Predict the structure of Phytanoyl-CoA dioxygenase.
Amino acid sequence: MTTTTDASLLDLPYDGLAPTATADFNRDGFIHLSGVLDAETIARYEPTITSEVIRLNTQDLPLAERDTYGKAFLQVGNLWRENEKVKELVFSRRLAGIAARLLGVHAVRLYHDQALYKEPSGGITPWHADQYYWPLSSDRCLTIWLPLQETPLEMGPLAFARGSHNFAYGRDLAISDESEERLKQAVAEQNFEDVVEPFALGDATFHRGWTFHHAGPNRGTEPRRVMTVIYMDADIRITEPTNDHQQADLSWMPGAVIGQVADTPLTPVLYDDRV
């Protein structure tokens, strides 16, 4: 993989995808990649992301007084709108190019970003599938999960049920104690492999919207700092929301029209291999 200490790494193509990567991603519903970014690039952006999470976080309850979702992580979305430096990372052609290749599409647009910080002693992230929340017309969407530090097992790295994106059960469940119980049981009954792996610095995973995933508690002494970006096929359309969460998610796409392409000021095309 080509490396550089300059921010331009974010615009350089990633050469770490195997010839079978797209097929593997379609089969498994996720992929774990090494060297997506280098240490210098992460060091360039992590302090800014962390300071923005601290500034914008609205969670003020002690861990012991929060519900399961509140204990899972501090969550701040669309940081790219708050800080130009964060925008450089979120708008990276390198990262968006990987997303397009894995989805098998010419172009991807941004849905939104989210910083997910699991505090020391933070609890589990319950089993769930992200696309429950998305009023989108197809499954051509995915999330990059990019840790901003080495993430050993004790810090609760993201874990995936291999092949679960092809299993229709549980798609009506919001992330909750109920989703944890029911999807954990379904994963076991269907013999889906629960893939739990540590992350070296610079590793990242990409997972499909319907892939079941979860994370353990953070038993470390430092926050588990993660940046995520959700990408979608540039031609994807907005659908009528099927739950209150999808209705709320329309706010990520102001001005979007049901049945039309999700082309809004907040969902720009980040990569197009025809340009």
About this structure: The CA atoms of residues 26 and 238 lie 23 Å apart. The first helix runs from residue 21 to 28.
